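Notes from the 1:1 (GR / supervisor)

We went over the backlog. Supervisor wanted to see one worked example end to end before approving the batch request, so GR pasted a single chain during the call. The sequence is below; no edits were made to it. Supervisor asked that the structure be written out right there so they could see what the output format looks like.
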Amino acid sequence: MVRNKYFYYLFLLNATINLINYVPRILITDRFDGALMSILVSIPIGTLLLFTFVKLIQKFPGQGLPEIFHSVMSKWISGILLFLYGLAWFFSSVITLVSFVDITSRYISPDVSPYIVLVGFLVVVGLSARLDSESILYALEMILYICVPIIAYMSWRIFSNPYFSWDSVRQIITYAWNMPNYETVAAATFIFTGYVNMVVFNRIFHRFRVRHVWAIVVFSLLTLLVSIFAPIGILGAAGAGGHVYPAFSTVDSLRIRYFIIERMIYVFYVVYMCLSLVNSIIHWHVGKELILGSFGLKVDKGEAMTKRRKIEWWVILLFCLITFGTSFIVNQYILNDMAIVFLDVRFAGEFLLIALLFYAVWRKRRKKA
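Structure output shown during the call:
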């Protein structure tokens, strides 16, 4: 059993990965069309979803979503729902991995084949996703302790840069009262979505409780503001919209004077490569567990566990083939459209997940009555 602090680590990972992922690009695209209002609206919505999910999942101590659904629904309905949620969570990692391969080719090593880079990522993610849940959380803790202070330092360097244009930031603030749209709200609320990983990790928590929700709210708001204002301040209010990866273009303009590595982008790349790989490992692990749960494969010992382990290899292999195949058929425009579709569907899927958990709690109470 693990302690409650690991829930905050799951949230923190998803929040920090949003500084480079597709969320800043979507927000910056709509910077004149309600992005700031979307951020303000997303905070209460995301907090409410997180708080409600936590309260509901606490009703099922030591159980994951497969165990919960199978206990209150028919086998075929729970199987379909678990399979779809598993694929959706895996789909998020596909976008992350393919995007990071593209980032590697653009900024770090354009002469190296992107497929070689992707194979290396898939080997690391595929093998690590088969580890038990506790080991993955312990690895996540170590990575965050290393990476988060570096991210904080780089954020400070951006906002303290003499070339940072506060006039560009003030220009965007003048559009703060423009009405938001579904797409940008869905993107902004993704920063809270790390709590969804608890659909599997809840199995290993002991007396799961979440305190200091205000800290999550404050950190989420600061992260979203950094993700939109940092590129705008360095690249300009108009220029920020012309970059595929605004965060990397922003950091590429910074220099480390007193370090051996002069360009900050190399440090930034290593930090976010670690975070992206850990994020993908967790998503593959959760997706794998949900898909295995959809077929009624339980986490048992003995012969059943041996059979489950064999099937795990086939699921991981399928994940690898889908990710590798996707890298062949998508370009940066298709990838951006895929990210938008995923965020829109995910936002609606979270409300459905909350509704299903409400139903599960109601059925559980009826059985006890």
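Supervisor's comment: The two ends are 30 Å apart (CA to CA).
Batch request approved.
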